[in-house]
């Protein structure tokens, strides 16, 4: 064995699946191209011989026989006229002359390019013309008495000429029959060769298909099956199983990569075991922290508010009893104390409400937003009447959510629209609803003082205020509360930056289904 032969398996072992496929497909295409060329040649040869036999040889023999029949009809008519003197015997002669001309014209076209057949045809025409000049034309143009005399005088010479014509026709037909027989034999051989060739082509294609299938099975399918089985074992928890590959180079590299992943997973699992214990400890700390927060909420709602109410009550009592009896500074300090106590109580109540979103009120069911909006408008009726506001809305749909939280959502949005109205005009508020695929998009549009573009993101942050408490009272939790409620229900909320006059809040809520889509119509309250 030479060194090149010893290195050959190593070279082939470095081939990838793509290279094997490229070489294999190229080889198959070359084989198919050769076979296709041979098959095409066989089909062309068969078609050519069939066309020669059907379109030339057989029609030429038939036309030669028609020439012979036409000449015999001429000879019969001339002989009858010469013997009887009756001109009706010339009718077969005239028809024979016409048929001869037609047959000669056709046979010339069919024999074009065949020198021997054309020579035979020329011999037939020469003998026919000699017989025509000696016998046929003189008798046909002569009167009956003269025709009988010419026929008697030239009978022997005419018989000799017509016999020569018959022999020329016989030779022509014999040659045409030989050529037809040769063409028929060649056609049979071509058909046989074509059938054998297509049988061989079918056999070669079947062998190539078997080789391709076996090559794919051994080179791709079997290695992939082994790799898949090993990967499934690892996926089922057998991380100690090493993965080895076989087949083309890229499949072996893939097996090496998968085994590297297995090793990395083993290392990650070892690391995650340690972190899982730390996560369990953190989860326990979070549960304890949540319990403490619950306790703080209880304390804030009860224990902290009780002394706050006392402070507020006594400062208000001082304000009522001693208001005007002390100096102006004392009255101002008492007013500061009363206002601070009230604002602290409002802040605690708002913080409690904010912390309960998604924790205390979490009963998802179908909610008719028309009813929720109606109750909200009833609660705000005094404020609506004081400001002279006009509130309109589209027909609102039915959604899935928490009734209390959705009521807080409309309450805060409408309260903000009423609170931040422009002093130059009465509030005009419109609530729009539009179905967009799987969500409902709601818009709350007012003609108030608006929000500057640089603050349109900040207004949803907790305790974010854009105005002083003297200009617009509040704790700065309203829109943060709205954002928390909307996001808890799987929606989004934002300020429309393209709306110029006033403010437009755009929010989305998941739709119940397509059947709840409401028609667009506007009502006024």
> How does the overall form come out from the CA principal axes?
elongated
Which structural class do the helices and strands define?
alpha+beta
On the 0 to 100 scale, the average pLDDT is 76
- Fraction of residues in H or I helices: 55-70%
- From the structure provided, what is the oligomeric state, counting identical versus distinct chains? single chain
Distance between the termini: 102 Å
Radius of gyration: 56 Å
Runs in which pLDDT lies below 50 for 5 or more consecutive residues are 1-9, 514-525
State the order of secondary-structure elements, H for helix, E for strand. HHHHHHHHHEHHEEHEEHEEE
**Order of strands, widest sheet:** 6-7-5-4-2-8
Please tally the helical runs, counting DSSP H or I stretches of 4 or more residues.
13
Describe the biggest sheet?
6 strands, mixed
- Beta-strand content: 5-15%
The count of strands amounts to 8
Describe the structure in brief.
Strand 4 and strand 5 (439-446) form a beta hairpin. The chain has helices spanning 3-13, 17-84, 90-110, 115-141, 144-153, 155-235, 249-303, 305-322, 328-356, 369-379, 381-387, 403-419, 478-488, and strands at residues 364-368, 390-394, 398-402, 428-436, 439-446, 493-495, 503-510, 522-524.
Q: What report would you give on this structure?
A:
This protein is α+β, with helices and mostly antiparallel strands. It is built from 13 helices and 8 strands. It has helices at 3-13, 17-84, 90-110, 115-141, 144-153, 155-235, 249-303, 305-322, 328-356, 369-379, 381-387, 403-419, 478-488, and strands at 364-368, 390-394, 398-402, 428-436, 439-446, 493-495, 503-510, 522-524. The strands form 2 sheets. A 6-stranded mixed β-sheet has the order 6-7-5-4-2-8. Strands 1-3 form a two-stranded antiparallel ribbon. Strand 4 (428-436) and strand 5 (439-446) form a beta hairpin. Helix 2 (17-84) packs antiparallel against helix 6 (155-235), helix 8 runs antiparallel to helix 9 and helix 12 runs antiparallel to helix 13 (478-488). Residues 1-9 and 514-525 have low confidence and may be disordered.
